[in-house]
Every structure is written in C-alpha cells, then in structure tokens.
Design a protein that fits this description.
Layout lengths: L11 H6 L4 H7 L5 H14 L2 H19 L7 H13 L8 H12 L8 H5 L19 H13 L4 E4 L3 E5 L10 H6 L12 H14 L4 E6 L6 H14 L6 H17 E2 L7 E2 L2 E8 L5 E9 L17 H9 L2 H7 L23 H14 L4 H17 L4 E3 L7 E3 L2 H11 L3 H9 E5 L4 E5 L2 H31 L6 E7 L12 H32 L12 H8 L4 H9 L6 H11 L6 E2 L7 E6 L2 E6 L3 H6 L4 H8 L4 H20 L23 H5 L6 H4 L3 H17 L2 E8 L12 H10 L2 H10 L3 E4 H8 L12 H9 L2 H13 L13 E3 L3 E4 L1 H94 L3 H32 L6 H46 L1
Parallel strand pairs: 2-16, 3-12, 3-16
Antiparallel strand pairs: 1-2, 4-5, 6-7, 6-12, 8-9, 10-11, 13-14, 14-15, 17-19, 18-19
C-alpha cells in the first residue's frame, strides 16, 4: 500500500502531446501529483495561463514517473496476486490472470509506453487512470479498483462517473485541495474544464438552481467513516463562499453546522467525527443567487449513545468540550471535573481524540450559539441540562433490606444537585425515579421500583433530556435560518451510513440500514429504472444493464405484514416481549428469501441487505420502538421551574401533537408547510416527545419505526422532486490510516453500491435529454438558416447533423477509432418521441459551441451598443460644451465690460474732481476780489446774481463740451486731453477775467462819471 505509483502512468506524456482538445488536456493534468495539481490550479487562477503551467506540470510529472518507474516493478507481483484473488471472488466479468500479469509486466518496464492496439484487442487493461470512469476503454471491477487506487496513492481522491456522480475516497489526512484559489478556479466553469472535485458538484448544482431555476439535491452516501460529513461541510463551504460578500444568513449556516457537529457527532470505531443523526439541509437562494435562508431536518438521533458506548467509541462531543474547554468558574458551578469521573463518559478507553481539540472548540461553540441568537444566559441553561445528564449517570440506588421491590437513592447530595439543575423539588424528583405511576380509572397507582429498574429509569430520563435539547436546538436554528425568502433551493443530505457491527446490531442499526436501503432504491430508480422506462417510452435503442434491485428487501421491511408492521403490532400488546416479536417475525417471513434465522442466532435474525447480510439482536426492539419513559417522570418534567426546560417540554408537546395529527392516515403524505412552525424537524425521535401529551393514547401508540418510515417517505418525495447529484463516499481502509488502500474493502463498497452498473449505464446511455422545442430554442443559433417551427423533429435533426455538431461526431469517432468493439452503440445522440438524447461529450461540445456563438454575438451586440452609447454621449457632450462655452464667453465679456466700466467711472471721477477743483479755485479768487472791492449791499447782490449766471453758464457750457468730448473720445482720452482742457479752461478763464475786469472798469467809470456829473451839477448849482 505504500508503494510508489506504478509505471502505468508513463503513458500520460505521449497523450498530452497528441492533438487532443482542451478538455482532454484538462483531464490529463490530473495524472500529475497533488502538489502539481495545486500548483496548476493556483497558477491558473493568478495568471490565467493554462498552457504554460500545464506543460510545466507535465514535465515535472514525467520526471517523477521516470524516477519511480524502477521501484514499481517490485509491487507488480503482489498486485497480480491481489488481482487474481479479487477475480476469483468476483461475479462480474473480468480479464484473465495471464492478461493482468502481461499488463503488469509491461507496465513495470522503464520504457513503458501507451498500450498498443494489440493489447487493447486482446483485452489488456488500460493502465491510464482517468478523471471520468465512463471513458474507460475496459470496464470491470479490476480496472475501476486500479483507477481509484492509482489516483488515491497520488492524493487524487475525487473521480467522476459522468456529470452527476462523484466518487470520493477518504484519504484520512489533510489535503491542500480546498484553498480559496482552488475554490475560485471552479466558479463559472463547465463540467470537465477542471479536475473532479466536490467543488465541481457544488458549482453545477449552484448553476442549475440559479440559471435553470429548478431545485437541486446533493445526496452524500457511503458507509460510516467514508467522509460524508466532511463532504457536506465542503459543499456548504463552497456555497457560502461563492459570493464575494457573505450575508449574515451564510455565516449563521456555517455556525449552525458547527453546533450540530458538537451536539450530534461522536467518535466511533470507524470515524472520529461520525454523525449520529441524519441531516437534510435545504439552502434557499434569492434571485441574485445569494443564500436567502436555510432549513435543517434531523433524523433518528442515536440516543442510546448517551448511556452506553462500545469500546473504542465515546459519547457526543459536547460533553468533552464542556469538561475540557469550559471555564473554571463554569465547571465549579456545574460540579464538572474530568471525563473519567462520569459513568456516561468512561465506559470506553477513548477519552480524547487527537484531531478534535475540545478546549479550542468550546469557545467556538459558544460563539456559534451566540450568532444563532442564543444568548449567554440561555447557553448557561443548556450547559446546565448537559451537566444534569452527566450527573444523572452518577445516581446510585440500593434495595432496602426486607423488601423486594423498594429502593432508595444512596447519594442524596447528588440527587439534590441534579434536581436543582432541572428545576425540580428533590423529594418529587426522587419519587419520580424510584416509583412508577399507573393511570387507572380509579386514579393514579404508585408502584415501587427496584434498584435496577430505577437505574434504567434514570438512564431513560437522561436520553430523553438530551434528545429534547437537541431537537429544540434544531428548532432554534431553523427559526434563525429560515427567513421565509428564497425561491429555489439546494438540498444536502448527510445521513448515517450502512452499519454492520461484529458485536451487536440492534434497533438503531436496523433503522440506519433501512434508511440506506431507501437511498439505494432512490439511486436505483434515478439511475436504472427511470433510464429504462424513459428509453422504452421514447423508443431509444440501447443495451439493457442488469442491476441489483432491493425493492423486495424494502417490501419485507415496510409493507403490510413486514418487519415494521409486525413490530408495531407487538408494541400494542402490553405483555409482548422481544422473544414473542422474534417468533412472530419468523412465522410471518419464513418464506421470504431475504429473511433468515440461522441456528447460532437464538435471539436474533438475519436480513440480506443490498450491502450484505446483517445479524440483528431482537432484544430491545420493542422498548426502543415504543421509546417511552415513566409517566411519573413526565409529570415531574411538566412541573419544572427551569425556563429552558419548560420551553423544551412545551415544544416537545407541540411537536407530539403535530406528529399525531399527521400520522392518522396509514399512507405517508407530503408534509404541509407551516410558516413559523418546525415541520421540517421530522426526527424519528419525535416519538419521544409524544409521551409528554399525557393520556393521549393516539400519540403514545405512534412508534419510532412508523414515524421513521413516514419521514423517509417524505424525504424520498423531496428528493424525487429535485434534480439529484450524487457523492459516493468510499472508505479506503478500516484502520483509518493514510496512504493505505484496502482493495477488498473498496471492492465490497463498489459492489453493493452498484458502481460498476452505474458506470456501464452512464457509458452506454444518454444522460442528457432535452425536449424538442427547448433543444431547438437553445441550439438554433448553431445553424445559419432560419427555423420556421413547422416540424420540430426535423429542426432538431438539422441542428444535430449540422456543421458544428458533425465536428463533434468526427472528433469522437477519431478518439474511439482504436477502441475495441464493446457492443455499445457509439452514436452520440438519438431522437426520441419527445426529447433529444445526447451523451455528455455531445452535450458539452454543443454547450461549448453555443457559448462560443453567444460570445461572438455578444461581442457584436456590445460593439453596436457601445457605438450607440458613445455617439449619444458625444452628441450630449458636444451640446453641453457649446452651452458651457457660451456661458464662459458671456461671463468673460461681462467681466471685460465691468472692468472697462469701472475704469471709465474712475477716470470720470478724476476729471470731474480736477475740473471742480479748478472751478473752485477760480470762484474763490473771484469772491476774494469781490469782497475786497464791494462792501455794500448792492455790490454783494449784484455779485451774487452775476455769480449765479456765470456758474450756470459755465456748467451748461462745460457739460455740453464735456459730453461731446466724452462721446467722441471715450476710448482715446489720455493725459494730453487733460492738459489741453486745462489750457482751454485757462484761456477761457482769462477771457472771462478780462471781460469781468473790463466790465468792472466800465461800471466804475460810469459810476465815477455819474458821481462826477452829480458833483458838477452840485457845483453848477
């Protein structure tokens, strides 16, 4: 198992050099090592250069194969022996031992090359591993095992079976396959463009739900320890991180998964983190493709693990997280010490798990509960109930001396503390534990219990409390996640795997295997029966495939007078025992070939499941199917003062009423949707809540088996209404060691899961089918002529026989030219009555061609639209520029005008100031002269009159002259004008002055003459 990969990988370099398409090159890159795949994906994400990095990876892989080819020869003999051993025990067609040895000897040589045509013709194995097993040239159990093993030893754990089925082999170690660059590399990529991965399934489901607007489901199946829980975790991780901005609902969904892991998972012999309940998660999406809400449905919590664990297993994780990760104050308050001190935790030597650090996970659990709306106060109440469950296991009872059926509690302080945690009176709680209440017509009859019965009563109460808390947590999670928004959903089914223990297989294993039988039937219906029915109805010619049908096994379990019917009938009789149930079962099913009673099983029976024979121990079937606790404990729980326990009890009572009302009809019907209710919590443990409705015989008589049967029917209806994707998880070895591949174990899983038949169906059939009108509507752009919609079938044929589709046929025939005849038609498509049937190669080629044509059309439309938008923008921008230019020019002209106006006003002010100054000086001088010469009243009056006339005349003349000069010389005035005006004004002043002096002289001469004449007259007289 630790040998290096054999030289059967040497053929890959020559294949990579052939002229194959891009999709084949992408598939061949998976032949490289894990480091090369990671390097290839990360470099492709960062640099978007596939050819350069893939060639680099191929050269490295070639060097590595050349260096390891010599070491592979030593393991060829062991591989041949294993192949011969497997061939002898196989019922499937296989090649001869001589052919296997011939192939192995050829592959061990250092210069091994691609298998020749002669090797293929004589049935030699195709030594190349492949991403998609439907492309294998020789198909049998040995080639499938070799393909899975060769990839597993190179840490390539994912392999496709067509487009809708993924095989995942558990590596039991951490692999660098889930980083953000690798996640981003699968976004918006078609099937086959990237190596097989769980992200590819999530991407295809996401694209289908967002583009086609149809509901999807991903069924993760496999036996316990195959890696189903981890696969579901990575599916949710991809869906949450596919968008750039995470919403609160997406964060709450991640935290909800963490909480359910802590409360519902445990360490088992096969898995360190095994889901001990079934989980059906519906993730709803809005119109933008973002997560709008979610709803979780739980199935059949393994309550028996609370009080009992086998060697090598341990209890649920939450107990160890609380004891190892809780604060000192919290543990002191709840009286919690270490796991080895509690009976419910120390029944196995496995106390700690190396890969599960409880001290680090407990703070994360508290944070997750806080994000989910459970505050710290309510968290404390939950932890109190968990502590109460642990302390219930520490209660000890002892029979009183002198009595046969009377007992009492030894450690009363422990009883008082448990009663305090549960919010009960210690005395009432003690009576409820050591006495049994019987409701009769006359009243309530109290019956004492012995120590053993009281201990069983205490264990049943512990199981009931934990189951109610778990159910209530799922209800609270749904209240937060289910926002009522979202149109379509992706459903993830993570349910318990097939179990067959060597020690004891009880009622829990029977229900688990019954659920796996239903899932296998759904897989058969989806893959085989529906294929045959559709091909027959559509008139498609194909080779029928024989497969193992488990319908008779399911009829034996769930039909009338089946195992569940007989079990429910026995549960109705008060005096029925497990032995009477077994005898009646043997009598009823003695003629059924799938039911056997070996002689060595004195108290059990054997059922032939699809996965093999399982021996069940009948003891405990009736009690577990009834799933009831004493009515005294029911009354005590109803009187609790613990707020959380009161809510849990009320919720259980409401759920029991809902279950009893929906279970009145014998046939299961679709579950009605009730807003704000918790109908999705279809847990088989709801029967546990049924006993809380006291004196309700209808609810109390409803058993766990019948409820589980109805819930599985509802689950099948949900899965049938969706487009399903399958993830087949395969366990590589029983010891949980990395790099160890147990061929017998893997072969057993492949056989009972129908993997070989599935590959043959996918290889021979047509998994892609489309109605005629939708096919024409989707692919009509691949043809140049215009469709008139007169004859849809002829139009489909025109598309399929067109130039583009014919290229795909030519490429396919060229690739398969060297393939030997297998009896399977090589037609890539067939026309049915209502649908077109295509193989995946044809479908992907048409999709690629359609994508190329749409991209070309999109480029043309984008060019036209961009031209229109740019032209429109240019016209608009030009008009805006013109408008801005006009505004700017107006602004500049106005600024220039205002600047010139201010300059003119300032110049006018200076000129006027100068003129006024000159006028003032002249007038002042005139006044001084007049004052000096005229002292009389007449002189002053005359002076004023003349001054007034002169001022008015000067003002008018100067105004006219200044106005004319201003209009004539507005833009050419200079300081010379001022000087000229000064000269003119001076001259004018002198003229006026001379005139004034002359006038004054004439006046004075006249006055003197008059005076002289008067004096002369006086003298003459």
């Amino acid at each position: 198992t630790n040998a290096s990969p054999t030289s059967m990988e040497v053929a890959s370099p020559s294949l990579l050099k052939d002229g194959v398409g891009e999709k084949q090159r992408g598939a061949d890159t998976s032949l490289c090592s894990l480091e090369e795949i990671v390097h290839f994906v990360e470099s492709d994400t960062e640099e978007n250069d596939d050819d350069t990095h893939s060639s680099h990876g191929r050269s490295r892989a070639s060097d590595k194969r050349n260096s390891t080819s010599s070491s592979s020869s030593s393991s060829s003999a062991a591989a041949a022996a294993a192949a011969s051993k497997t061939t002898s025990s196989s019922s499937f067609p296989a090649v001869s031992l001589a052919s296997s040895l011939k192939c192995l000897s050829v592959s061990s040589s250092s210069n091994a090359t691609r298998p020749t045509e002669e090797d293929r013709h004589y049935g030699a194995l195709d030594l190349r591993d492949t991403d998609d097993m439907i492309h294998m040239t020789r198909m049998n159990v040995h080639t499938i095992l070799h393909n899975l093993k060769a990839r597993y030893l190179r840490d390539v754990i994912y392999t496709n079976i067509g487009a809708s089925i993924l095989v995942a082999v558990n590596p039991y170690k951490e692999l660098p396959l889930y980083s953000n660059p690798i996640l981003r590399s699968y976004v918006d990529h078609e099937h086959g463009a990237r190596p097989p991965h769980i992200f590819a399934i999530a991407e295809m489901a996401y694209r289908s739900v967002t583009q086609q607007k149809c509901n999807q489901s991903v069924v993760v199946s496999g036996e316990s320890g195959a890696g189903k829980t981890v696969s579901c975790k990575w599916l949710i991780h991809y869906l949450v991180n596919i968008t750039d901005n995470q919403t609160r609902v997406e964060q709450q969904l991640v935290y909800a998964n963490h909480v359910l892991e802590s409360f519902g998972n445990a360490c088992t012999l096969r898995n360190d983190n095994s889901s001990r309940f079934g989980k059906f998660t519906k993730i709803k999406f809005d119109e933008q493709g973002k997560i709008a809400g979610a709803r979780i449905t739980d199935y059949l919590l393994e309550k028996s693990r609370i009080v009992h664990q086998e060697e090598g297993e341990r209890n649920f994780h939450i107990f160890f997280e609380l004891l190892c990760g809780g604060s000192i104050a919290l543990r002191e308050k709840l009286r919690l010490t270490k796991p080895a001190d509690f009976r419910y935790l120390n029944q196995s030597t496995v106390i700690s798990v190396s890969e599960w650090n409880e001290s680090d996970r407990f703070p994360l659990t508290q944070q997750a509960l806080l994000v989910l709306g459970i505050e710290e106060k309510e968290q404390l109440q939950i932890f109190e109930l968990m502590a109460a469950v642990l302390h219930l296991g520490e209660l000890n009872f002892r029979d009183q001396e002198g009595t046969m059926d009377q007992c009492r509690v030894i450690n009363m302080d422990q009883l008082s503390f448990v009663a305090q945690l549960l919010g009960m009176e210690p005395k009432v709680f003690e009576i409820a534990l050591i006495q049994k209440s019987l409701h009769t017509v006359d009243g309530v009859l109290q019956t004492p219990l012995d120590a053993k019965q009281a201990k069983e009563n205490c264990d049943s109460l512990a199981r009931r409390i934990y189951q109610m808390v778990f159910t209530y947590l799922v209800h609270r999670i749904n209240l937060v996640l289910d926002t009522g928004r979202g149109h379509n959903f992706i459903a993830l089914l993570d349910i318990f795997g097939f179990e067959n223990f060597d020690a004891v297989n009880s009622f829990e294993q029977f229900c688990i295997n019954y659920a796996n039988e239903k899932l296998q039937q759904f897989f058969n219906d989806h893959i085989f029966k529906l294929e045959e029915k559709v091909y027959a109805e559509e008139g498609i010619t194909w080779e029928k495939i024989d497969f193992v049908d488990n319908e008779e096994t399911l009829d034996m379990i769930e039909k009338r007078l089946g195992i569940l019917d007989v079990l429910d009938e026995e549960c109705r009789f008060p005096k029925a025992t497990d032995d009477s149930f077994r005898r009646k079962l043997v009598k009823t099913l003695e003629n059924c070939k799938y039911f056997r009673v070996p002689k060595r099983l004195r108290t059990g029976f054997r059922i032939l499941h699809y996965a093999g024979e399982v021996d069940y121990e009948a003891s405990g079937f009736l009690e577990k199917n009834r799933d009831q606790i004493q009515s005294s404990l029911v009354d005590a729980l109803a009187q609790t003062t613990n707020p959380l326990l009161q809510d849990v009890v009320r919720f259980g009572t409401r759920e029991a009423s809902a279950v009893s009302s929906t279970s009145s009809s014998p046939c299961p019907s679709p579950r009605p949707t009730r807003s704000g209710s918790v109908s999705g919590h279809a847990s088989p443990s709801r029967s546990a809540s049924g006993s809380f409705v006291r004196r309700n015989t209808k609810a109390a008589s409803h058993s766990v088996g019948s409820q589980f049967k109805r819930q599985l029917a509802e689950l099948m209806e949900d899965l049938t209404s969706t487009n399903s994707w399958f993830v087949r998880c395969v366990r590589s070895n029983m010891s949980k060691f990395p790099n160890e591949f147990d061929e017998e174990l893997v072969e057993t899983q492949l056989r009972y899961s129908g993997m070989l038949e599935t590959i043959r169906v996918r290889k021979a059939g047509y998994p892609i089918r489309t109605p005629h009108d939708l096919f024409v509507l989707r692919y009509r752009m691949l043809c140049d002529h215009v469709f008139k919609r007169t004859n849809v079938i002829s139009e489909c044929k025109a598309i399929l026989t067109g130039e583009i589709a014919s290229k795909c046929t030519q490429l396919e025939s060229k690739d398969e030219g060297s393939v030997p005849e297998t009896g399977v038609s090589k037609n890539l498509w067939q026309l049915g009555k209502t649908m077109v049937f295509m193989r995946e190669s044809m479908y992907f080629y048409l999709e690629d061609s359609r994508k190329t044509r749409l991209q070309h059309c999109a480029v043309v439309l984008q060019a036209l639209y961009r031209m229109y938008t740019v032209r429109k923008w240019y016209v608009h921008y030009r008009a805006q520029v013109i408008r801005v230019q006009a505004q700017v020019r107006r602004f500049l002209c106005r600024q220039r005008f205002l600047r010139q106006k201010r300059a003119a006003i300032r110049l006018q002010a200076r000129v006027r100031c100068f003129q006024k100054r000159q006028w003032y000086v002249g007038v002042r001088r005139s006044f001084v002269v007049h004052q000096a010469l005229v002292r009389a009243f007449l002189q002053r009056k005359c002076y004023l009159r003349e001054r007034h006339v002169l001022v008015k005349a000067q003002a008018g003349v100067r105004a006219v002259l200044a106005l004319r000069r201003y209009r004539r010389s507005r833009y050419v005035l200079t300081k010379a004008q001022a000087g000229a005006r000064l000269v003119l004004a001076r001259r004018h002043f002198l003229r006026v002055r001379r005139s004034a002096i002359f006038c004054q002289a004439m006046v004075r001469a006249r006055q003197q003459r008059q005076r002289y004449l008067r004096q002369r007259q006086l003298l003459i007289r």
